[in-house]
Amino acid sequence: MTITAVQGAPPPHPHEDSERHSRIKALRAAMATRGLVAVALTSPENVYYLLGLDHLGYFAFTMLVLPAEGDPVLVTREMERTTVLAQVPEVRHVTFADGEDPACAASRALRHVAPDGGTVGIEGRGSFLPPAVLDGLRAVLPALAWEDCTGLLASARAVQSATETGCARRAAVVSDAAMQAGIAAARPGVAERDVAAATYHAMISAGGEAPGFVPLIRPVAMLGQEHVTWGDRHLHAGHGLFLELSGCVRRYHAPLSRTVYPGYAPPEAVEAAESALAGLAAARTALRPGARTGEVFAAWQRAVGGMPRRHHCGYLVGIGYPPSWVGGPEVLGIRPGGDVEVVAGMVFHLMSWVERPVGHVVSDTALVTEDGCELLTTVSRELTVVA
């Protein structure tokens, strides 16, 4: 295990330095309010948000330790040294070798910045802090107290800056290109995997990065299997196909969904599409600064009429790493009774999902503006038949 102050090339996007410094300053102010001497963050989205570290090595234990004062400390596998040196040379870098307990490296990093008797914030409800590592930290550092701070950055990340919404807009262009390609490929007799291939080719060609979630492509008959995607099936005339995907630019996402019909659309599909479109229009109108998320859901529910109650009609999106484009296990959804205030700068995946008389979904990425909301994704929302 080594501790070094690394030097090297400047960050790949130096124009964002001031914004990241502001984020760290704001986080430290929140830490002071809660009496935290340091926070130990493990989600790749929060590490990226504060440092700009963009890689896939987070599959091995990674921890950003931000003390109340002084340089951030990054704990990673030794193999990530070159990446850290290139992307975030300003941090102190603590590494652990393969076969070494990551808790040992993390505890040494914390010991340098967290005095005995202090309280350290951790992402206790996140997906990237193994219980064995946390147990190891508690055993090696018994004089520290630990407090869950999973949501400490949630409010800040919920409202995007102009730089961030610019990335979301670019991601929406990628999303549109991928969706258009997928729809064009969805002809009778075509294999689902060929539709997926078309979306990926367009997504990458349009300037997109690897998204946090693969495109979800499956028949309407399997709509309720919400996180299942393409298989060895072929498309049949008159059988609906569900496509949900997101472009990704600088880790910001812009999801959208469409339901299309190869060959022809049966009458019940027309009815379902009309209901879903009415719901999307109502939710879009209600999604404006000052509204509560529960009010937006209620507007959508009224518009779709007697449809079964769904658990949400949208959720916040932004920075995302595999296995998700929502940026963590806790998602701010537009749900029944939700009391979160909608604020300009929030970006939602706004969904209208109906199940009668057949399943139909239409969704878009919606940016909340000062006087309403703007749909960033633009592929036709009308019922589409692919000849």
UniProtKB/TrEMBL annotation:
Coiled coil start-end: none
Any Pfam family the entry gives: Peptidase_M24
CDD domains in the record: APP_MetAP
Domain named Peptidase M24: residues: 167-370
InterPro entries in the cross-refs: Creatin/AminoP/Spt16_N (IPR029149), Creatinase/aminopeptidase-like (IPR036005), Creatinase_N (IPR000587), Pept_M24 (IPR000994), Peptidase_M24B (IPR050659)
Annotated Creatinase N-terminal domain residues: 23-159
UniProt cross-references to Gene3D superfamilies, sorted A to Z: Creatinase/methionine aminopeptidase superfamily (3.90.230.10), Creatinase/prolidase N-terminal domain (3.40.350.10)
Domain of life per record: Bacteria
Database matches in PANTHER family: AMINOPEPTIDASE (PTHR46112), XAA-PRO AMINOPEPTIDASE P-RELATED (PTHR46112:SF2)
Protein name per UniProt: Xaa-Pro dipeptidase
Organism: Pseudonocardia hierapolitana
Lineage: Bacteria, Bacillati, Actinomycetota, Actinomycetes, Pseudonocardiales
